[in-house]
Amino acid sequence: MNEMEEIIKEFLVESNDNLDQLDRDLVELEKDPQSSELLGRIFRAIHTVKGTSGVLGFSKLESVAHVGENLLSRMRDGKLRLNAEITTGLLQMVDAIREVLRAIEASGVEGEGDYSKVIAMLKELLDREMKRNSQPPLGEIIVQHTEHAVQEALEAQHAGDPRKLGEILVERGSVSTLAVHEALNAQQSESASHISGSSIRVDVNLLDKLMNLVGELVLARNQILQFTGTQKDTTFLGTAQRLNLITTELQEGVMKTRMQPIGNVWNKFPRVVRDLATQFSKQVRIEMEGSDTELDKTIIEAIKDPLTHIIRNAVDHGIESPEEREAKGKAAEGRLSLHAFHEGGQVNIEIVDDGKGLDTERIKQKALERGQISPDHAARMSERELLNLVFLPGLSTARQVTNVSGRGVGMDVVKTNIEKIGGTVDIYSLPDQGTTLKIKIPLTLAIIPALVATSGGERFAIPQVSLL
After folding, report:
1. Bridge pairing between strands 284-289 and 334-343
2. In what order do the strands lie in the sheet with 334-343?
3. At CA 313, angle to CA 307 and CA 315, rounded to 5?
4. In Å, what is the CA distance from 400 to each residue of 313, 319, 350?
5. Are the beta carbons of 69 and 50 closer than 8 angstroms?
6. Which of 256, 411, 445 is nearest to 342 (CA)?
7. Strands 334-343 and 346-353, how do they pair?
């Protein structure tokens, strides 16, 4: 690989990371449009994509990022205020950039995609909002006033005032003490973000190769240990024991390099929920707890699609429209909670919504219509058994087919995929109170599947070495 290919590869990796963060930041900014920290981070990410794509000669990518940067620049300067329409437009820009990056990764060129509509839409948003906000905004007036006060305080320092800038501004009534503290905290956070990180990016294929070598070392270690029972040479026994300890420690260390927080998957869900809620005219708030819970990369990849389907199902089927919720005495905004934690030697993942719950009678009728259960069996089934019918292949209670759900492909696949990695999935539901899905994965599987997954055979299953 030549130097330019290396540069492009690094650009693709960093840009994709930035885009994942952009999805999350834009959804968060919509909730808190006044956050200068979020807005600054979003602007810098797009500015970086635009600048680097221009240097590398990716003109199509540069054009898409450029128009988004213009819009963000006006927002950063306080001349525009974020709204739902602008958020949607910027998210479409992110999707367009992601599509171009995929084409570059696949073929080395930007592809045949036409993004003129996205560019025109963002320009129209910019023009429309600028006309609407043609008067000087209050924020700009305040900024101008504050800049004048800061200049006067700086002049006082130059004239010999020994106090800090913040103290002078507070004493003159230009800013509050709270504002100074917030500014200091923001300054410290910004400084910390510029300190070189203590982590590096490593190619997964290299980790897999390293893991294979560790597996071979484990096998060799075990063969040596088989002889220790018949040996009396203390030097040999001591060396074998040290080899055993070092190999075990090395094995644990390599395993940990593959561990990833479940937040790497969850971080995509606020965008998914936001898009679906907009599509179905619903109000949904997503809450996530335990996003730092770690699992092996193999497990993370295996649960990504099942979790996404559960989230989409909850927004589409579970959570009602604002009007329906208010008619039931509920808050107009639905709640979707994700919770991950370690307990009892297992990784537990819970997905909870406060929607309408599952209609067990309808589930039973669908299963009867499809011949998946007999009438006699149905009559004897408990509520718990009826709920588990949702995992039958092809069963769907959707009243209409959408591009999200209702095609009879879903919960059975979720259950199958979770069970493939040794986990279990259970469902609980109460009418008009909501639905809870609980996924449990044995901790040993969550930590050490890669030895089997990357070994290419049975050999890695031979050593029975505890990592805990």
Report:
1. parallel
2. 284-289, 334-343, 346-353, 434-442, 424-430
3. 110
4. 13, 16, 27
5. yes
6. 445
7. antiparallel
**At residue 48, what is the residue type?**
T
Q: State the Cα–Cα distance between residues 393 and 416, nearest whole angstrom.
A: 10
| Size (the chain), residues | 468
- Cβ(326)–Cβ(332) under 8 Å? yes
Cβ atoms of 468 and 388 within 8 Å: the answer is no
Please give the span between the terminal C-alpha atoms of the chain, in angstroms, as a whole number.
40
Indicate if the pLDDT at residue 441 is higher than 60: yes
C-alpha neighbours within 13 Å on the C-beta side of residue 381: 20
Quote the crossing angle between the two packed helices 3-31 and 269-279, to the nearest 10°: 50
Supply the Cα-derived Rg of the chain in whole angstroms.
28
> Angle CA(293)–CA(295)–CA(300) in degrees, nearest 5?
110
Around 35, how many Cα atoms within 13 Å sit in the side-chain half-sphere? 15
Please tell me the predicted confidence (pLDDT) of residue 448: 47
Nearest Cα neighbor of 33 from 44, 42, 45, 21 is: 42
- 3-class secondary structure, 154: helix
Query: pLDDT digits over 52-108, tens only?
Result: 888 888 888 999 999 999 999 888 888 888 888 999 999 999 999 999 999 999 888
Give the model confidence (pLDDT) of 380-432 as tens digits.
Answer: 898 888 888 888 887 765 555 555 554 334 788 888 889 988 899 999 999 99
**Measured distance CA(345)–CA(326) in Å, rounded:** 41
Instruction: Please give the pLDDT value at position 411.
Output: 84
Residue 185: pLDDT above 80? no
Half-sphere exposure of 435 (CA within 13 A, CB side): 23
Q: Are 79 and 134 in contact (CB under 8 A)?
A: no
Neighbours of 90 (CB within 10 A): 25
Q: Rounded to an integer, what is the distance from CA 60 to the centroid of its chain? A: 27
- Dump strand ranges (E) for 215-313: 259-261, 284-289, 294-296
Amino acid present at 317: H
CA–CA distance, 350 with 417 (Å, rounded to integer): 16
Measured at the CA of 37, the angle between CA 85 and CA 178, to 5 degrees, comes to 120
pLDDT interval class at 336 (50, 70, 90)? very high
Cβ-count burial of 16 within 10 angstroms (0-12 exposed, 13-18 middle, 19+ buried)? middle
353: part of which helix (H) or strand (E)?
A: strand 346-353
Looking at the chain, the whole-number percentage of residues with pLDDT higher than 90 is 29
Please list, in sequence order, all residues whose beta carbon lies within 8 angstroms of the beta carbon of residue 343, skipping any fewer than 6 positions away: none
| Mean pLDDT of all residues in 454-462 | 34
pTM: 0.69
Residue 127 is which amino acid? D
